[in-house]
Amino acid sequence: MRVVGNRVIGHKGDVLAEKIYGEWQSKNFDVLQFLESLEKQELVRARDDEGQFIPDDPATPEVNEAWTKKLKKRVSKK
């Protein structure tokens, strides 16, 4: 599955979910869980083992190596 704009596209090219009025609509529960897991992730700069930023490789325009997804930290109240 992949998210393209306001739609979730399946492996065969079919539309599995669509964002209508700011909310995801789908009949498939697995697709909704997939979207929920994406919302728990944030985009951060990619780093190597030494902590240096990894640059984007211009030879691969379809992949951006400079950014990676990471789970958001939960904030607990004291």
How would you summarize this macromolecular structure in one to three sentences?
This protein has 78 residues and is of the alpha+beta class.
List its traits.
four-stranded antiparallel β-sheet, 2 domains, 78 residues, 1 helix, 32% strand, two-stranded antiparallel sheet, 14% helix, alpha+beta, 6 strands
Count of beta strands: 6
Output mean pLDDT: 81
**Tally of DSSP helical segments:** 1
Summarize the main sheet: 4 strands, antiparallel
Identify the strand order in the major beta sheet: 1-2-3-4
Instruction: Report the β-strand fraction as a percent range.
Output: 25-35%
Instruction: Look at the helices and sheets and give the structural class.
Output: alpha+beta
Q: What level of helicity do the residues show?
A: 10-25%
Explain what you see.
The chain is of the alpha+beta class and 78 residues long. The chain folds into two domains: 1-39, no CATH class; 42-73, no CATH class. It contains one helix and six strands. The strands form two sheets. Strands 1-2-3-4 form a four-stranded antiparallel beta sheet, with helices on one face. Strands 5-6 form a two-stranded antiparallel sheet. Strand 2 (7-9) and strand 3 (15-20) form a beta hairpin. The radius of gyration is 16 Å and the shape is flat. The model has no long low-confidence stretch (mean pLDDT 81).
Q: Layout of helices and strands, plus pairs?
A:
Blueprint (H helix, E strand, L loop, with lengths): L1 E3 L2 E3 L5 E6 L2 E3 L3 H11 L1 E5 L21 E5 L7
Antiparallel strand pairs: 1-2, 2-3, 3-4, 5-6
